[in-house]
């Protein structure tokens, strides 16, 4: 026996309602993680010193995207419960737009936080400038020491930055136990740190985007089922 539209409609309604609840929970988690990363004192310190404020752009986009996802959940619930085809169409369009916006936010965050991303060469340039200014410039000396000592790194690309610029290798560039210079440059260490801290946010954002596609498909099926039900009557 073939399933009747009136049998399938309640099932899809319940699935959509459950998905909306899950989306609300995940969206609030994403907002919380984005705010935590945005106002984390350590991250803020590295971002300010190394002039990589573009890292925040992806966080801002994902915060706005998550707020829109939370708001669209009410529209989705209203469209599902009222079986209003106009609201269902509006819901499909809004879900698609939010999908694009959320995916863009995840892409921007990845492009400004991962290893060898857009901020990687920026960090190298800033570190070279700090090396050039130190030790004559006190601010540059303090900034350079802060980054290298706390991150366990040396120069932008490595100890060769000091050698090529004919600068003395500072104590902050060396392991306190072995006395050897740190192998990795600060560009690598900083991007690894940011990638590690933003990976969960990116993953959850992509999960929300995938859920939007499912929502669009189910809403489209729901419209067709309601149309068949009306024709049958």
Can you put this structure into words, describing what you see?
The chain has eight helices and no strands. The protein has helices spanning 5-39, 41-50, 55-82, 85-111, 119-133, 138-151, 160-164, 186-232. The chain is rod-shaped, with a radius of gyration of 25 Å.
Question: Structural class of the secondary structure composition?
Answer: mainly alpha
Please state the CA-atom Rg, rounded to the nearest Å.
25 Å
Please work out how many helical segments DSSP would assign: 8
Helix content: over 70%
Largest sheet: none
Please give a handful of descriptors for the protein shown.
8 helices; disulfide bond; 2 domains; Cd81 Antigen, Extracellular Domain, Chain: A; transmembrane; 233 residues
Q: Summarize this, please?
A:
By secondary structure, this protein is an all-alpha fold. The chain has helices at residues 5-39, 41-50, 55-82, 85-111, 119-133, 138-151, 160-164, 186-232.
């Amino acid at each position: 026996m073939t399933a009747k539209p009136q049998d399938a409609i309640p099932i899809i309604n319940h699935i959509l309602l459950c998905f909306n609840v899950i989306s609300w929970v995940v969206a609030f988690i994403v907002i919380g993680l984005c705010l935590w990363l945005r106002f984390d004192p350590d991250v803020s310190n590295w971002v300010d010193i190394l002039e990589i404020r573009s890292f925040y752009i992806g966080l801002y986009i994902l915060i706005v995207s998550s707020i829109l996802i939370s708001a669209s959940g009410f529209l989705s619930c209203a469209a599902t419960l009222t079986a209003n085809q106009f609201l269902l169409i509006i819901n499909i369009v809004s879900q698609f737009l939010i999908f694009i916006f959320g995916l863009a936010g995840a892409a921007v965050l990845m492009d400004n936080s991962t290893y060898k991303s857009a901020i990687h060469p920026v960090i190298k340039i800033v570190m070279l400038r700090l090396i050039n200014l130190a030790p004559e410039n006190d601010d540059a000396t303090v900034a350079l020491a802060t980054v290298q000592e706390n991150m366990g790194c040396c120069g932008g690309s490595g100890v060769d930055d000091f050698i090529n610029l004919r600068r003395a290798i500072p104590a902050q560039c060396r392991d306190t136990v072995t006395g050897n210079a740190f192998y990795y440059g600060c560009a690598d260490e900083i991007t690894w740190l940011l990638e590690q801290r933003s990976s969960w946010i990116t993953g959850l954002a992509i999960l929300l985007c995938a859920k939007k596609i499912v929502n669009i498909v189910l809403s489209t099926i729901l419209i067709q089922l309601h149309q068949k039900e009306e024709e049958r009557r």
